[in-house]
Amino acid sequence: MTLGTRRTVHRLSIDAPEDVIFSMLRDSAHWPYLDGLTVYSERVSGDDSNHELRTSVVANGSLSSRRCRRVFNAVRQHAEFRQLDVEAPFLALGGAWDIQRADGQSEVTLSHEYELDDDAEELAERVTRYIDEFCRRELEALRLSSERLSLLLQRHSAAREA
After folding, report:
1. Which of the four, 40, 53, 88, 92, has the lowest number of CB atoms within 10 Å?
2. What are 53-109's pLDDT values in tens digits?
3. β-strand 50-59 against 62-73: which pairing, if any?
4. What is the pairing mode between strands 90-102 and 105-116?
C-alpha cells in the first residue's frame, strides 16, 4: 500500500533575467555546478526541448548513475523532469521548474512529486526532509550561478557599447 502522491514546492527570487536562468537549467553541463551532488551529466537522446539525460550523482556516500526525461517549454519558461530508473523506496519521482518575472526579479519555483513503496509516515517525512534540503541547496546554487552570469553579461554588453 502506498501513501499516494506527495508534493513539495520551493521558491526563490533570483536577480537575473528568466532566459539566463532557463538556459542554466536547460544546459545539463551546468548541473555539476548547481546541486553539489551531480558529478557528471550528459544528454543521451532527444533534442533541446525533449530529451533523456544520464547523470552520475553522489548520494548517501556512494556514486550512482541515474536517467531522467526532461521536457522544456521555452515560451512558458517551464521544464518538467521525470526519473526513469527510480530505486526503492520510490515508485515514481518527478517535478517541474517554473520561472516568472515578479517585482523586478525572477521567481523560480521547483516542485517535486513522488510516490513511495511503503506507507510508513516516518519514511515519507524523512524523504520530504531530504528533498527539502536538496531543493534549498540547488535553488541557492542556481541563484548564485545565474546572478553571476547575468552580471558578466551586463558588463560585457556595457563594454561593447562603450
Report:
1. 88
2. 999 988 778 888 889 999 999 999 999 999 999 988 899 999 999 999 988 899 999
3. antiparallel
4. antiparallel
Burial of 78 (0-12, 13-18, 19+ CB in 10 A): middle
Instruction: State how far the Cα of 93 lies from the Cα of 54, in Å rounded to an integer.
Output: 15
- DSSP, collapsed to helix, strand or coil, labels residue 153 as helix
What is the sign, positive or negative, of the torsion defined by CA atoms of 73, 91, 35, 135?
A: positive
Pick the closest to residue 108 from 21, 11, 41, 20 (CA basis).
Answer: 11
3-state secondary structure 92-143: EEEEEEEEEEECCEEEEEEEEEEEECCCCHHHHHHHHHHHHHHHHHHHHHHH
More confident residue, 15 or 64: 15
> Residue 149's closest CA among 39, 43, 49, 15?
15
